[in-house]
Amino acid sequence: MTTTATPPATTPSPTTTRRGAGLTQTLLSYVIAVLLAFVVSGIVIALLGHSPIEAFRAIVTTSFKSSFGLIETVHKWVPLVLLALAFTIPLAAGKYNIGGEGQLLVGATASAAVGITMKDSPMVVLLPLVLLVGVLAGGVYAWIAAWLMDRFGVNEILSTVLLNFVSFGIVDYVASEVWSDPAAGHPTTVPIGEGGLLPLIGAPPLHSGVFLALLVSVATVVVMRRTVPGYELRAVGTNPRAAAVHGVRIGRVAVGSLVVGGALAGFAGAIEVAGVHGKLIEGMQSNYLLLGIIIGLIARGNALAVPFVAFGIAVLEVGASAMQRSADVPMEMVLIVEALILLFLLFSDVVGARLRRSSR
Amino acid sequence: MNEVVPFLQLVVTAMVPFILAAQGTMLAGRAGVFNVAQEGLMMLGASVGFLVSLKMGGNPMGLLVAALVGAAFGWFLGWVTTRFRLDQFVIGLALFFAAVGIASLLYKVVIGVTLTPPLIDTLPDIKIPVLSEIPGVGQILFTQDAMVYFAFLVSGFLYWMLYRTNLGLKLRSVGENPKAADSLGVSVARTRIWCSTAGGALMALAGAYLPMTYTGTYTEGIVAGRGWLAIALAFFGGWRPQYILAGSAFFAGMEVLALRVQVGGVDIPHQFISMLPYVATLLVMMFALRWASVPAFLGRNYDRESRH
């Protein structure tokens, strides 16, 4: 029996590149996984006595039928892609960040705090400050977990999850005690200053946080693939021992990846405050964390795939409420579809490996 | 004294979900399967347990069906991670999602959206003859519902099985050194699948206990992180049944204390009190992990052809 406190430290990152599978095969496995997931959940919907065709039509058409639907999907995409990256970046180093929700909420709280206390400042000052503070707060919050992991060997899965629950208390305190808006009837803060709001573009309006999220996605891919820190990150994830031998400081890379992840989740929180709500609202995170994780896993840790998968999931999520309205199928069905996509995708690896072995 | 006894009686009740979920985690983990779906399995157990109790014949049936559903999930985790060697964390997270989705879906399909949720009977207290007459202790330990006794019996059984039987020795060896176990003729895959199945059943039971004691109904926030706390508990209980039992007294104590302080009107914002169990867990883990040991193959799949 060993005395180390860090659980499965040597498990290599599960979702990095798959040996022997080309691009066509990978895309094919996605298509098959999605189709199978829809077939299985279609059977379930039929068993519940509803029409699967109608349900799926509601999901797929909502986002593309009207510009309102499309913009709602894009707005949903922003926090999803950022939270998925917040999960994916530490995953590349073999670390699981299950604390995106807490990091998002703490980032949002900090952004709202700045936006409210300095509400008369001009936009050039306030907006960058609101966004920056959110990023920093999310990063610092993730650093707590990273520090516990590095210094005391506390499993990061647990510490990040526990910090989520702590953040609920923080949001509730700020929204219902410190800057409470008594007229709201739900724990909500007063609105932040006008200068802290992200500019809207076009009609129906699209908030400009979308472009920031796009920028962050592109930057992440470039950093992961083309820079030394990105290379070190992937080296630690694929073979920590070899990385250490070649002079990569494993502990620092792991801590850094979690902090960067937290910063991105905090950014998502800041954008939600500055772009969507204009204030801090309890429960504003809905289930972004769950979705961020599932997007990260479906994208298999590939930062380039994350924005695309996130868009697909955003379509499903926006379509879910339409499905509930028009086909009377509970929107939780979509969560099951998503879990099935992931499971079938994982199974396609097994099948693919068998096929390759037998054809050799 | 008249404050302390009801408090401790509540603590013992609150221990049950922690004991069951953490012992389930421990049992699967001792064979090397690290389940991270607790939170979801507890939600599913709560939902299924409540619905079956409400619609078809009472709490025992509800508990039984919940356990079976949990077992099915545990079996699936064990099966795909041993048979196909898929990543334990990724499958665990996928099962977590599926369980969360199914839990809410079932409730919505059966009950729908109502203003006043239907209620089930909560579990009755069973007084153990003679023992319940002991002042103080009798009320704390021996005037409780059946699941309290069950949780303590399970803990005792697991301790006996792991450390006093040949089966337990084999089981532990699978989590510590599967290669050695394999070469001695122990079936690594079968052991892992069984432990994961039983572990899943315990986790779902832990969830089913919640509506049957606390609320009488299912709500989405009913599990409130207890599943994740159960993993923490397995770690700082050192993956040993007896310390997990002791540790769940600590967790339950924090939970009941937080509720008490909230009701008692202490001059601290209640939001900070509600953080207490989670912060305390983090603080304890900083130091408890110094001495805790982890099964060497926890979370790692065994490949017969590899060198380890």
Brief overview, please?
Chain A has 360 residues and is mostly helical. In chain A, 72% of the residues lie in helices and 1% in strands.
Describe this structure in words.
The complex is a heterodimer of chains A (360) and B (308). Chain A is an all-alpha fold and 360 residues long. Chain A contains 13 helices and 2 strands. Chain A has helices at residues 23-47, 52-65, 67-92, 100-117, 123-152, 156-178, 209-226, 228-238, 240-245, 250-277, 288-298, 306-327, 333-359, and strands at residues 200-201, 206-207. A two-stranded antiparallel ribbon of chain A has the order 1-2. In chain A, strand 1 and strand 2 form a beta hairpin. Chain A is globular and about 70 Å long. Chain B has 308 residues and is mainly α. Chain B contains 12 helices and 2 strands. Chain B has helices at 4-30, 38-55, 58-83, 88-110, 137-142, 146-164, 166-176, 178-183, 188-215, 226-236, 241-264, 270-288, and strands at 125-127, 143-145. Classes of the chains: A mainly alpha (360), B mainly alpha (308).
Core attributes:
heterodimer; A: 360 residues; mainly alpha; two-stranded antiparallel sheet; 2 strands; B: 308 residues; two-stranded antiparallel ribbon; 12 helices; 71% helix; globular
